[in-house]
Specification:
- The protein is 51% helix and 7% strand.
- By secondary structure, it is an alpha+beta fold.
- The strands form 3 sheets. Strands 1-2-7-4 form a 4-stranded mixed β-sheet. It has a 3-stranded antiparallel β-sheet with strand order 3-9-8. It has a two-stranded antiparallel sheet with strand order 5-6.
- A hairpin with a 6-residue loop joins strand 5 and strand 6.
- It is globular, with a radius of gyration of 24 Å.
Length: 502
């Protein structure tokens, strides 16, 4: 009997080995250039253990760049993934043929974890309907209406930094800027004054850090949840911590009930969501857009918080870091700010911030060197043949665009490790293929809040550069090290700079 059991086990192992070996010939059988995988992690064996995904994809990109191919194959565990490198092909897949690749393949569980069913994650017709309802809330006019709320937070931020500099000139700017973005989003999305400068451990900040820095699952488990979402949903697996989900659901519920009971109007994003909930319109006599459920409001408020909190603070932190390393660029950015301020009688108005061209170039160059999201992922919604080559991608096949690596390709950006805001002058941008620079994604699923994020970043940086000068010192980590656990390309050890009042 023992011999039979042993024989059965050996047979199972042999079958598994044969299947895996056959699986690892997937790209070879299709005559696609690929990197030889190793069991069990395929080509991502260090993911989440010793480094962020950005340098992993950079190594893959460097390998394929030497082969000069438009795409290349790799494996996540035993699942084949197709990198897309050719910018025209990227444009085709993300824009022209978007209907074939509409979904990101992000895990969500609408039944057990309703906050995870936000616009970044949901798919199909639900996404199209929700995007159509929410797009009008992010127009320039409506973002401008929230500008006074951002201005007030910015004033408190600069006052706080003045106080800090009375006792020390060494500051961890990523921590400070995280408080700034927390307060901005608290004010604009929830109508709540978080007061993160006086109460750095407030609930919003505490749960925000948990959501980003203390993930409930390892990268391997997250991948398995995405790959086998139907089964993970059936098991009730959640993307979010219970306490994080409970906190945000409670805050949104309390906010909605209070505003409706007291008939509070603040001209923020929550007001717009409530109008859609109660009337299906953004204006009393406006177009019928469609109503939102409470769960949809909560999920969108949550993604507005998570998408805007760490990405914006990280982008601003890296901008100050790069300007500290490049004093000439910092002085030029400061001069840009002051010239525009003089034009607007010293007032940082919405129009003034919008005209600060060189500052915007600095932010764009920062997003090139340190894009918050290192990769774009899409799933084939139906069988699709790639133009030119005719390679057939089956329904469910995942494609990946290595944003970080493309942003560091000298063919697109000569001397990519150098910080040069001039790369994003109008003339330089016009000469470059636009699809080699994708910090916000592209196509119909481009980041819906990018204009709001840009405004809050420019206002915050303009205020800081007008009043303070930043420089590096022995505690500044050069080059900056990326966190290996955060999906966002955040700094592992903060961003320490010296600051002085001007």
């Amino acid at each position: 009997m023992w011999l039979q059991v042993i024989g059965f086990v050996i047979a199972i192992v042999a079958l598994c080995y044969a299947w895996i070996k056959r699986r690892y010939h997937f790209w070879k059988d299709r005559s696609v250039a690929y990197i030889e995988p190793s069991f069990p992690f395929g080509n991502f064996r260090t993911l989440g253990k010793v480094e962020h995904i950005a340098p992993i994809t950079q190594r893959h990109y460097d390998y394929f760049r030497l082969l000069n191919v438009p795409y290349g194959g790799v494996f996540m565990l035993t699942t084949p993934l197709l990198y897309i490198f050719d910018t025209q092909l990227i444009k085709t897949l993300l824009v022209k043929d978007f209907h074939n690749f509409p979904n990101r393949g992000v895990y969500f569980n609408e039944r057990d974890d309703p906050l995870s069913a936000h616009m970044f994650a949901i798919e199909g017709q639900k996404w199209r309907t929700l995007r159509a309802k929410l797009s009008p809330t992010f127009t320039s006019g409506r973002i401008k209406a929230t500008f006074p709320l951002v201005q007030e937070v910015c004033r408190r931020f600069c006052d706080h930094l003045h106080e800090v500099l009375r006792s020390t000139d060494e500051v961890e700017v990523h921590d400070l800027l995280s408080r700034y973005t927390i307060d901005v989003i608290g004010a604009c999305a929830f109508g709540i004054e978080c007061n993160s400068f006086r109460e750095p451990d407030n609930e919003f900040r505490r749960y925000g850090k948990i959501a980003f820095d203390k993930l409930p699952h390892s990268p391997l488990v997250v991948y398995l949840m995405k790959a086998f979402r139907k089964y993970a949903n059936a098991l009730g697996m959640k993307q979010l911590h219970e306490d994080v989900s409970g906190f945000f659901m409670r805050v949104v519920k309390d906010t909605v009930e209070y505003r409706e009971r007291e008939q509070i109007v603040r001209n923020d994003f929550m007001d717009l969501l409530l109008k859609l909930k109660n009337t299906g319109r953004l204006e009393e006599q406006g177009e019928e857009i469609g109503r939102l459920t409470f769960e949809e409001i909560a999920a969108q408020a949550f993604i507005f918080f998570t998408a805007g909190y760490d990405t914006s603070s990280t982008a601003m932190s890296y901008t100050l870091y790069e300007l500290a390393l490049n004093p000439v660029a910092q002085e030029k950015a400061r001069q840009c700010v002051r010239e525009i301020l003089q034009k607007y009688d010293g007032q940082l108005t919405y129009e003034a911030v919008s005209e600060m061209g060189y500052l915007e170039q600095c932010i764009s160059e920062t997003l090139r060197k340190h894009p918050p999201v290192a990769i774009l992922e899409r799933n084939a919604d139906k069988d699709y043949r790639l133009p030119e080559s005719g390679l057939l991608l089956r329904r469910g096949q995942k494609i990946m665009i290595p944003i970080y690596a493309m942003h560091h390709d000298p063919a697109h950006f000569p001397e990519p490790d150098e910080y040069r805001p001039e790369r994003f002058s109008a003339e330089a941008t016009a000469r470059r293929d636009p699809h080699c620079y994708l910090p916000f994604g592209e196509g119909p699923r481009i980041c819906i809040g990018m204009r709001f994020g840009s405004i809050q970043a420019k206002l915050g940086l303009a205020s800081l550069l007008d009043r303070f000068r930043f420089s590096t010192y022995d505690r500044t980590q050069i080059p900056v090290q990326y966190s290996r656990t955060n999906f966002i390309l955040g700094p592992a050890n903060g961003v320490w700079l010296k600051a002085e009042v001007l």
